[in-house]
């Protein structure tokens, strides 16, 4: 089991500027999709052309994963919900996912824990529900939009991000097809690896089982910072990791950061995305290797 950490070999803790805004909002920024407007012969014509383009493309928005969605088929209320979610993404981190009978369940944390359920219906369509209870037929909740956008990014990994997807009223891209069927075809374990979200066995839910996957990922992330193999990095910490309540380990920054990675899902996501922010590099996904 491995995680995409190659760019960490060129990254030091000093490069993580303390002036950078910490938190999910620093990494998840959505905005209106705006292609380049060609130059015109006069300022008046340029301004007029720009206004026309804005009017024409106002129904295309860009998500935090940089996918473009065409929302012109949605009711006005739903359009507003999509715009709001993508322009100011909720501070969400995935905790775990599982398959329970005919339902894929994704658990995520915000200020409170929320659960998205994607159930297979008898008519071949999926039933999408969120534990927040704020979604309805005209306006999907922000949690559902957030999750389906990330699942779509994983499952349509070779889709041209400059080509707008068609947003459905249920909160996912039409090009994805039925969400339950799409997840089934791409396999939950492959998807969870790309999302850094552990697949758990509903029959075995000990605290040790839930933490083991994150321990291994954290070791690989920290070892990559030092350019070492995970097996050789700090065996004194990882041979028998202590998952106590205290995060601070005095005189030991590596151990302190390791405990922070286990303790806070948002910090783990922030740390895992550091190579993209500091180096501008791209990390490969096991999903692409699987295909």
From TrEMBL:
Residues 36-56 have a biased composition (Acidic residues). It comes from the Eukaryota. The keyword Zinc applies. PROSITE patterns: ZF_SWIM (PS50966). GO terms for molecular function: zinc ion binding. This is SWIM-type domain-containing protein. Residues 13-56 are annotated as: Disordered.
